[in-house]
Fold these 3 entries.
Entry 1:
Amino acid sequence: MIDGPELAIMQSFYRIPRFSGLILGIWPEHKRSWDKNLLFAFSFLVILIGACGENLYGFANLDNLVSALEAFCPGSTKAVCVLKLSIFFMYHRQWFDFVERLRGILCASRSDEAQQMLVGLSTIANRLSLLLVSSGSITNTAFNVQPLIMGLYHWLRELPGQVELPFNIILPGWATQPPLFPLSYLLLTASGACTVFAFSFIDGFFVCSCMYISGVFWVIQQDIRSIFVDLDKEEFFTPATNAAIRTRLVSIIDRHNTIIDLSTDLTRQFTVIVLMHFLSAAFVLCSTILDIMLNTSSFSGLTYICYIIAALTQLFLYCYGGNHVSESSLAVADTLYDVAWYKCDARTRKMILMILRRSQRAKTIAVPFFTPSLPAFSSILSTTGSYITLLNTFL
């Protein structure tokens, strides 16, 4: 058993999403301080400015498809981020309660084997979140460095032209003229950086929550097996053995019900977020790939290759996390069926049947029209490819 108050899982508990959430001032806390609210207000404002200005630019320049797509790609991502941040801020107390309940059930699994499994799943979730931060940061850096490189090239070649803003965006005329141009450039750079940390926090929070929930389902399976592991040689269980089994099953039933309730709460809180993300995913992927196909600039093409990697990583996180919850919840029923339940008395079998019936229906993170899973991920990629093929015939 693990001694001491600090369990191994707590060292990596939401590590990357918590880091990103603290930068934005949105990490769920019991009581929010004024400086956290001020930090969140700044982050939310710069993302909102980018979302509105870039999408307006796209609609205003529909006659130039490349320019419009270059505005819609980051603009649509920022618009979805605004929605996600709004939901998290409005329900920050519910998110705090969710995190504390999940922390409690993870800490209840104190065996070395359980902690090792939970840490492994947490490491996978944090690495996926780190991949999202990295790909998003590279994309944002490419957007912001490209105008500077082009401006330097024009200056060295003594060609006409000036440094442009990092994103195609509609801003007031005075904001794009000296001496405020550098400030506007920095503001849009901050907008891109805050967007990266926003989807790193929210999408990372989702995949970490799913991996922790699936980890508890796996721990429950381990505990069920441990009840019967030393009883295989007995032909039938004695009344004393059945009583001991029932005592341990009571604890398992409580944890099973608790983790199912947590899954339900996660689904309810993320319904709008997941729905909007999936609805926008095909558009973002289509517009990004079309921009790569139509853009004649190799640097812009490289930028949007980084962008599509970040977009695919976002989508994969939702599908991967949802798939893990579904598979691990179903596996509890398989574990119950494989143990020597037929050696128990009628009262004990009824308790086993209670868990079995709840486990036979997969606990999915389902939203209207979509269920995040790996088959859904491949379906979206297939649909995106079909859309691109269709659009390419008109171009």
Entry 2:
Amino acid sequence: MDSASEQNRRLLMELLERDGNGNCVDCGVTEPKWASSTLGVFVCHSCSGLHRNISQISRVKSVSMDPWEADEVKFIASAGNNAAVAKYEQKIPPFYYRPTNTDCMLLREQWIRAKYERKEFMFVDRQEPYSAGYREGFLWKRGRDNGQFLNRKFILSEREGSLKYFNKQDAREPKAVMKIQTLNASFQPTKIGHSHGLHITYLKDNSTRNIFVYHEDGKEMVDWFNAMRAARFHYLQVAYPGAPDTVLVPKLTRNYLKEGYMEKTGPRHTEGFKKRWFTMDDRRLMYFKDPMDAYARGEVFIGSKENSYTVLAGLPPATQGYHWHFGITIVTPERRFLLVCETEAEQLSWIAALQKVINRPMMPQEYAVEAHFKHKP
């Protein structure tokens, strides 16, 4: 590499030390190694691949490996991550989901396209698909009994406080009405088997109902997701008057704390252990025969240590009938739940997830959830 290129590379390395440039402008990862010569920003390796999908707008190169022209370095010096954030993120609605490096590629790609390609956060009118308070369209929904994905009409209405879907296009009555009050959504591409797969849950008679959907168009699916977050945001503004956005935004949607297979036995601890799929959704520990079941076989409320909830490694000495070897005992005021993991790593991971919830004091509204909670033994 000639001396001019070496000098340009050194200048780029110096620019990385500037305030704001030490993290990927799109996902926040530290020490980004790539830069966009046309946007004037530093990005991580993973986000650089997504920038290549908008190559007409962003041309990315390695900071240390690729040759750089003096005018490219000069432009980046005049721009930088802080300036790009001020420009491209100036009007982000508080409810809009900002993905991190741990989120699925769909969310991250659409975030990058929304910022630089569609300029949604520079022009408020371009946010209409998820900000209007009403959204109607078709999604592929998994059938509860046969497992087939069928095209279903969905309507999200903030005014009615619900997300509805219809089994037939001309149906007057919805097949299901999901109240925004208990609605949650998280992207689960691996579980659903589609890169745009969204897992929707809501409470029906105090039990969690699972709905699995996708749309072939990634933008459509992310717009649905953010429309649901917008509806939840406006509902919570009424439910918690005066609460700041910093309190409301974490309540909009939540990812599961942990999921995976464990073995469990019944309440008498004499039944054989059965393999079940477990999902930790905040204070609800649910178990399913199959990860894609519509309803859980049972749900366990996980309270706080102040209320006599604990988690222990291992099983009572006389326990029999399990196939795996790494036990967990969950102690609640009513009973003990005995679970077994396949590996020690899974056991430690589940204990950490459960302990995190148990260590957190219960909120006033969570006592009401505990009081009305139902679990199937």
Entry 3:
Amino acid sequence: MSGTKCTRLSGSLVKQLLDSVDSVLFDCDGVIWRGDQVIPGAPQVINLLKEHGKKVFFVTNNSSKTRRMYAEKMSTLGFSVTEEEVFGTAYCCAMYLKTTCRLEGKVYLIGSSAMRQELEAVGIQQTGVGPDHVLGKQSDWAGVPLDPEVRAVVVGFDEHFSYMKLNRALQYLLQKDCLFVGTNRDNRLPLEGGKAVPGTGCLLQAVETAAQRRAQTVGKPNHFMFDCVASQFGVQRERCLMVGDRLDTDILLGSNCGLKTLLTLTGVSTVADAEANWESGCTERQGMVPDYYVESIADLLPALQA
């Protein structure tokens, strides 16, 4: 392992790192909480960073909640936060369609009611939320009714994902001018006790396979999520730290955007995973090696309390 990568962050090095940044981006699940349980010390770290004049933001690939829902959860857990500091893929997807794509028309949405709310908040109408059951015979399915105003297919986490939704998405995407956007490519959502459930990446790959097209994703590790934060709050990449528990999303986002990176071991990835990435010799995998690691973000507390 290189002497400048994956260094354990402790002692005077903590203050040195914090003094070198003005802004800190935090992933949520596995970093500041696990499920509905707060990581011990996390609220104090976030609140003290703000007291020290740092800008703090939260970037999550979870598309099942609006910014407001996240801010309410954080407040309940003891974090001092506003919804403007939260950047989830539901919100970022809406911003991408509005500002980058300048979408004129509706969205066929495979996603949650939270995604619908974020789309409607920026003036984009959608169709598709909720169950879509199989009707008729197989010969009828290619002729399912389509909304002529739809100009984009968007795929996020959808507990009602079904064969008919997959089919309807395909029919829209056969139109070459129909945009194709996904929130993220996380294939599994880790749960407590080593359990997991399928993630949005599974749904997105199914639609990509059917349509024989590749979606543009807006979530980590794509740089758009950082661009969203930077454009609204004037964040300078060379003075920004990304803190996360996943090498393939959080740390890679930091590498892609030229940020300092810190891995916390309270979630998915391990130091052994980072070492394997470095030793692989693969440039892409080496982008998934953090600058520093800590057991928990609570390890930052002594420096903040000094």
